[in-house]
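Q: What structure does this chain adopt?
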Amino acid sequence: MTAGHDILSLRAGMEPDLQGSFSSSVIFGLKGYVAERKGEREEMQDAHVILNDITEECRPLSSLITRVSYFAVFDGHGGIRASKFAAQNLHQNLIRKFPKGDVISVEKTVKRCLLDTFKHTDEEFLKQASSQKPAWKDGSTATCVLAVDNTLYIANLGDSRAILCRYNEESQKHAALSLSKEHNPTQYEERMRIQKAGGNVRDGRVLGVLEVSRSIGDGQYKRCGVTSVPDIRRCQLTPNDRFILLACDGLFKVFTPEEAVNFILSCLEDEKIQSREGKPAVDTRYEAACNRLANKAVQRGSADNVTVMLVRIGH
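A:
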């Protein structure tokens, strides 16, 4: 493996520079690939969405915006209904609420749009869930990447994650930059919110049952401080960025982000992967990287559903 494969490790507490200082009139092309494995679970409760270009659907757009893309992974629990609902509806709500025409601040309006979208999607699902007999108890994490030209807006709930692979010219190594924030009840701020709402955390879970402290659905825990308000981060893409990895915790139970990025890089440079007729070699390699990483997670003993999504950043 070449030195270029090595990961530049980021020590805990070190915040990577996600804003970047690069600006360009060239809009990077984005393309998503995915692989999913049921693993040892009885059913597949993950869901995902790849929308390489939703520019037309979002019109009329600000004159400052050229392209809009959306990628998301949802990890369901207690059933598939919440993750499926989020996969079908969250981007539809986002498109409806996306800022129309010129706005004073694209960043502020996009962030507001994401907050409103998550709230609305959760409310819609809870309304449907509570009207059933018996009421649905499904819930889901959500990790969404909304790309507005070369700016990524990452909105997430729960413990699925988004990682950016960025090449560092000084060290000549690739870094695995975390774009999302995990939410679990053992974290101080999350625990405090749950306790303030009258809930409690036992054995690292809300009321001793729920592993995440933010989610879509989970109606029975919403009164205990479990919220659908996502963390939203902003990241400026640079010419040194290779790909984005979105994956559920089924992957990260058996791979560190650095290991996963390393594994993907070695797949992308594996010349033994043959390109299929009529398909670009780069597509074949990204598809193979997704499939190999998902397979390896299952081989390593991940008992959970595994969803691996890669978003190639084209220059």
